[in-house]
Specification:
The protein has 82 residues and is mainly alpha-helical. The chain contains 2 helices and 2 strands.
Length: 82
């Protein structure tokens, strides 16, 4: 699998404690956003689903310099979509 540091510029020079903090932050963000998304799906709130997706894309772009909509997950890891 391709290391995330090759895809995420902000992650390239992070030490081990920084990687751990990064991973824990991602997990917490995922849990909170997943709960909100599931609630929006259960209520069939398509506007909120779109807003949550847009917010996730913006957060990754602003915090890590990565556009999630331009990544694809392959057997070799994440690659920039053409």
């Amino acid at each position: 699998m391709r290391p995330i540091r090759l895809v995420v510029p902000a992650f390239a020079h992070v030490d081990e404690p920084g990687r751990q903090e990064f991973a824990e932050t991602l997990m917490l963000n995922l849990l909170v956003q997943q709960a909100a998304y599931v609630d929006a799906v259960e209520r069939d709130d398509r506007v909120m689903q779109q807003r949550l997706g847009d917010a996730a894309v913006a957060r990754f772009r602003n915090e890590m310099g990565v556009d999630l909509r331009r990544l694809r997950l392959t057997n070799q890891g994440f690659v920039k979509a053409s």
